[in-house]
Amino acid sequence: MARLHLQALRRVSIPHAVVAVYDANPTAAADFAQLAGARVYESLGELLEAARPQIVHVCTPAGTHFEPAHRALLAGANVYVEKPFVETQREAESLLALAQERDLKICAGHQLVREPSFTTVLSAVPGLAPVRLVDSHFTFRPPHIQLHRSGPGTLAEQLVDVLPHPLYCLIAALEPWVGDAAAIEIDSVSATASDLHALLRAGDIYGRLYVSLTARPVASTLSVSGQGGTLTADFVRATVVGAGNQGTEVLEKIANPLVEAWQQGWRTVRSVATRVLRGGDYPGLAELIGAFYQSVSGGTACPINSVHLKRVTTIYERLAWEIRRSAADRPRPASSVSVGRRAPLAVLTGARGFLGRQIARALTERGYRVRGLGRSAERDDPNVHEWQLMDLSREIDPAALAGAEVVVHAAAEASGGYDAHQRNSIDATRNLLAAMSRGGARRLVYISSMSVLRPPRTPWERQNEDTPLAPNPRPLGAYTWGKTLAEAIVAREAEPARVTTRIIRPAALLDWDNIEFPGLLGRRLYGRWYLGLGRPSLPLTACDVAVAGDVIAWCAARFEEAPLILNLMDPRLMTRQEILRAFRERGWNGRVLWTPISLMAVMIVTLKTALALSRFAWPERLAAWSVLRPRRFAPDLSEQVLRSLTKDRDGASLVDRLEPLGTDGV
User: Fold this and answer.
1) Which of 67, 158, 186, 279 is most buried, taking the most CB atoms under 10 A from its CB?
2) pLDDT tens digits for 54-80?
3) Burial of 117 (0-12, 13-18, 19+ CB in 10 A)
4) Statement to judge: residues 81 and 216 lie in one domain
5) 172 and 235 inside one domain
6) What average pLDDT is seen over the chain?
7) Residue 400 and residue 301 in one domain
């Protein structure tokens, strides 16, 4: 969000300068300061005392806004706080009272109230009067969690995190009809860990709030209905749809759907074109920040008033409590294996991830006690027995690895630019090796990717574990660049650190419980239709994510027997056609439009170049053909490991070897 704020500030006309930045992560602070042309401070107190800012932006994680906002107000700064404003009514009243006492302004990141479609609908509301109903509808697909595998606590926190946007929009649309004195009350609430239904009442007007992580399609809309008709603001498309009439006459009944279809089509095309040319910033953010800066410099009223902030926080506190209570009432999933405190310890980074969850499950089944390391915890996961919260891109305390029989490093950046991959893939790997060296942990299973291998020199080359890493991975994209350099660090620095390693490079990972196209296979276009890259007979390797977890746990338990490097793939899934056949056997019924890879590569490079030039920048080189081209792999070593895994399951397991430990063991 801080980077989005910086991007939005470039569109703010009020003269300003970004002078200071503080972040708990010094590396992230340094990277951001370089972008902003600002100075890094080692603490918030030092920043406030030395820089004397007029405005402070609080972009810390949700639940941590009160303290920095409070300290900034005490230091004499006006404050812009990201959503949610604060967690409780008491905190809101404390900040608002302090701001009033110091004659300062405080604003919350309710940017959608400045989004053009919202302001258009509100300006047209008098023509709909009297208003009877306001609907706020928000359905969201979380990018970093698996809905079908996540526990209720994780889902609830994600739902609470997205709740503020549809809530403050609904309250802002109700407020013009009730004034500052009248109350907006909660009439009823129904909540689960992933869905919220709430009915609010403002006098004679009702507001319906629906927020869901599971309903589809993804949407964010606000509809205002009255005697004069209905208008809908669509925040995803930045459009307004509605004929704005009563729809009672014959011609209105016939024409209104046609009018609305035209509005939806034309305004969507216009909105997409605007966002592409502008760079796709956060809707309404620049407008709200600009209005806040104007209020500070001109001494005018704050764009988000205190009455609104109190209302939103009061209702948010109650709804968040209902969501969390519902999640707490659901039983925590149980592990299939009971692990005692004397079981051998496996330290796992990336335990919350798509693959990490399966590794934790497989390690637990082999009798390990699993300790997860990362920025946040998945408390619902029964296979991670303890968590230690830390940022792996910073120096790691060796105590976090104390007692570890084996360390499995599965954490890596999955998205973002080169700077994010530098921190969370490259720096994290180097820091982990350093901590292992100091802490005495001697065995590392490092999870890499098959994309790190040098691009094939000929169409018929069969790559294997002896194929070298890509010598110049940067043009292959940020993910491959980060993974390649991180694996090179393991190969170069593990031996001097007295760490013995096993490197596993999984192929494209598939989840049979939630079938999605791997990126190199293609992606869904519309409904049942998918865009496929290449043709069905071209090679593409894949592996079931649960099997990958089993293999990694086997390598951890049978460390001496495991190969030094393993390109992990399913020998039955070696072409696009074989992957699609496996999909269909499990109920997938999609249709694929196959597109030549060379054509797609040209289109990607052309589009990337055009977008960069439209912003008066030169595009960074992307070797799209090398990224997308099919590769042939030799599955021999994978076949051997999978056979060994099968025999290991049938024979003596780690659990059997722990039986002498007694009741405190497995």
Assistant:
1) 158
2) 999 999 999 999 999 999 999 999 999
3) buried
4) no
5) yes
6) 91
7) no
